[in-house]
Amino acid sequence: MKQDRDSSGRFLKLHGADCKQIRNKYFDGRTKEGKLFHAIRRNMIGDLGGEASLSQKQWILLDRVLEKLIFLHRVGEWSLEQDCIVDAKGELLPCLGKSYIAFNNALRLDLQALYGDSDNAKKRTPKISEIIAEHKG
Nearest 5°: phi and psi at 86? Predict the structure, then answer.
């Protein structure tokens, strides 16, 4: 694999989100990252009513959500370590471009599918007669 170098010839530090060793840290409950992602998983399962109430579709979506979170978390951490996330041409670094945006959007869609539509989307606009009746009380 070809790795880019900086102006002094040193290898550039990569985000590592596509590296098996880095990803495995998130599944190991002993690491900082592993503890974080185990807690997220536990909380999501609790949000959805517990393990016994999850459908196969929800288990699959839960796994996909966690995979996307790992990628986004790692790239986000890496970007915080950079001196600048915009190159000389004024463009975002490649890993923050289309793929990062696509992962964010895919995560949003997975969460919508897992949890259902947002509360705001479910609320219908009340009829004026309902508003009047509520305030007459």
Answer: -120, 130
Beta bridge partners of residue 11, listed in sequence order: 5
Would you state the structure tokens that stand for residue 51, as one six-digit string? 């393990």
Q: What sign does the dihedral 7-11-14-18 (CA atoms) show?
A: positive
What's the pLDDT tens digit per position in 20-60? Answer: 666 666 666 778 888 888 899 999 999 999 999 999 999 99
Q: Is residue 30 part of a domain?
A: yes
**pTM for the complete prediction?**
0.64
Residue listed under structure tokens 């463009």:
91
Residue 86 domain boundaries? 20-136
Tell me if 12 is assigned to some domain.
no
In a domain, 7, yes or no: no
Asked which of 5-9, 48-52, 81-85, 124-128 is least confident by mean pLDDT, the reply is 5-9
